Amino acid sequence: MENQYCETDVLIIGCGIAGGTAALRLAEAGFRVTVVTRAAELHESNTYYAQGGIIHRGPEDSAELLAQDILKAGAGLSNPQAVRILAEEGPRILQKVLIERLQVPFARRADGSLDYTREGAHSTDRILYVGDTTGQAIEEKLVQQLQETSNIQLLTRHTVVDLLTPAHHSRIPLDVYEPLSCVGAYIFDQESRRVRTCLAKATLLATGGVGQLFLHTTNPPGARGDGLAMAYRAGSRIINAEYIQFHPTAFHHRYAPVFLISEALRGEGAKLVDENGRPFMQKYDPQWADLAPRDVVARSIYHEMLERGTDHVYLDLKSYMSADKIKERFPSIYAQCLQYDVDITQDLIPVVPAAHYFCGGVWVDRYGRTSIRHLYAAGEVSCSGIHGANRLGSSSLLEGLVWGVRSAEHMIRELPNIPRFDPKNVPAWDDSGLHETSDPALISQDISTIKNIMWNYVGLVRTTHRLERAIGDLRNLSLEIDKFYRRVKLTDALIGLRNSVQAAIIIAEAAWANRQSRGCHYRAS
After folding, report:
1. Mean pLDDT, range 351-372, rounded to an integer
2. What's phi and psi for 430, nearest 5 deg?
3. Which residues are known catalytic residues?
4. What pLDDT shows up at residue 274?
5. pLDDT digits (tens, 9 = 90+) for 146-192
6. Closest alpha carbon to 246 in 160, 403, 353
7. 203 FRET partner, CA 20 to 30 A, in 192, 283, 374, 525?
8. Whether 16 contacts 49, CB under 8 Å
9. Is 484 left (phi over 0), alpha (psi -120 to 50) or beta?
10. Residue 392 · residue 372 · CB < 8 Å
11. Which ranges of 104-187 does DSSP label H, i.e. alpha helix?
12. At what angle do helices 17-28 and 134-147 cross, to 10 degrees?
């Protein structure tokens, strides 16, 4: 394969709110930025599918109050310093970037003031929203600005194979003794089927989450653990990987894909009910009931299903909101459910928990720096410690925004002092030993196996025996996938399979090592 070479100041892997805002800030400061996404469209990211909203500062709110809510939801594992940064800086950055610069059309009251709503475990109204497609509205504005910025190169249908680290890839043998650093990445062009060697002074991982490792998830196809696996192979520190938040309410229908039924419905008064329409959350959490933290609600649904021998429960919105208001407030959810003959203005909504958010990830400090020099991470792939053992609703978009901006600001200060790595010392990508053509059926079967193992053994309720079975099965599968990878020509699906099994092992081993139930990591034994 002919090697292609490119050079940039900053390489950003991912195009959601974290990667996009970082790119804009760096470009504004005059640096050359290359943004890479494996998707065909720039907007395709976890951000685009976020329904509920983003935390701002409500009329009866304060940084202290927000910090208290985040810390309480995090079940004692949140990083107080990171929480304080988010609570104090978040609303100001949101105002400057999303409202003033991008002009995201957040809902407003009749007098023109911002409209605020509330979600589970929030003690006041503080969440901005755009109907039930908040992430889409943010992402569309973000992509528009990226496309209009001349010193940002946008590469779609490009999949990162591995991060470039001199300790692993340099032609100079003695570089193995140097501290770990990142100088770019090998990037697979899905159309030309060639691998680019992209060198950068700094690299930002903003690849999103891991939901696609599970059988049922609210995440889009790209959330397969790419960034987590790449960072791990490069030697980056990974923390809190056992904390997978399961969203309590994903649409359940035999012939429908899983999609999110936003927590905002419960924020507006909807209640979880059994098949007879009887609310049940009060018996599991008398204080918060339907607005309890997500881990509590998800496990309550799990226990309710076990007790009743059902594979789902229901959400009742129709009894608490008028039909016209439902269509106005939740137009996307209304339309999606109606495709499967569920009219949420008249019917109960069948729901089931689904893998939703990765609270752990690549360790980062308050500036988004990882344990590898010149490698940053922001958004769901990272772990700043804000979410602790359980994420507070609508905090993820704000974290991606704040850490995207903070990592960019740190790079702006550091980039002038970072020397460029000599391209002569980076070996070209070598595919001379890859002779076989990838078999989609084999990849599909392996992905299905990973999803089932993770759902059944590393899901909502975990036990020692289940986790031991998961680790054994995943390690055996990993050996077969590694053999497959070393003889088959690259495809995006093959790269994703390799990353998925690695990410799954990281999560399963972290869950096995932690015998204490906390937040969204629940050990029954």
Report:
1. 97
2. -115, 115
3. 294
4. 96
5. 999 999 999 999 999 999 999 999 999 999 999 999 999 999 999 99
6. 353
7. 192
8. no
9. alpha
10. no
11. 134-147, 166-169
12. 30
Which residue has tokens 């089931």? 352
Angle at 21 between CA 20 and CA 25, to 5 degrees: 120
Angstrom distances, CA of residue 248 to CA of 260, 351, 410, 484, 520:
9, 8, 37, 37, 11
Q: Are 162 and 233 in contact (CB under 8 A)?
A: yes
Q: How confident is the model at residue 431 (pLDDT cuts 50, 70, 90)?
A: confident
- Amino acid identity, residue 434? L
- Single out the residue of 172, 56, 52 nearest to residue 423, CA to CA: 172
Number of other residues whose CB lies within 10 A of the CB of residue 385: 22
* Residue whose token pair is 């740190």: 410
Confidence at residue 3, expressed as pLDDT on a 0 to 100 scale: 53
Tell me the pTM. Answer: 0.93
Residue 260 near residue 270 (C-beta atoms within 8 A): no
3 state SS of 136: helix
| H helix count then E strand count, the chain | 15, 16
Give the C-alpha separation, 214 to 68, whole Å. 31
Place of tokens 């049922």: 216
Q: CB–CB of 503/210 below 8 Å?
A: yes
In angstroms, the CA 450 to CA 201 distance is 35
- Tokens at residue 302, please? 């799990």
Task: Name the 3-class secondary structure at 127.
Answer: strand
Tokens of 258: 């899983």
160: β partners: 187
User: For residue range 385-403, what is the model confidence (pLDDT) as tens digits?
Assistant: 999 999 998 999 999 999 9
Which tokens is 26 given?
Answer: 């760096």
pLDDT in tens, 47-99: 999 988 999 999 999 999 999 999 999 999 999 999 999 999 999 999 999 99
| Full DSSP string of 395-458 | -HHHHHHHHHHHHHHHHHHHGGGSPPPPGGGSPPP--TT--BPP-HHHHHHHHHHHHHHHHHHS
Report which secondary-structure segment, H or E, holds 382.
Answer: strand 382-383
- Region of 278 please: left (phi>0), alpha (psi -120 to 50) or beta: beta
Q: What beta strand segments (E) does 101-183 contain?
A: 127-128, 152-155, 158-164
Q: Are 258 and 246 in contact (CB under 8 A)?
A: no
Q: Which residues pair with 523 in a beta bridge?
A: 462
Core vs surface per residue 405-425: b (16+ CB within 10 A) or e = bbbbbbbbeebeebeebeeee
Closest CA to 517 of 467, 462, 454, 468: 462
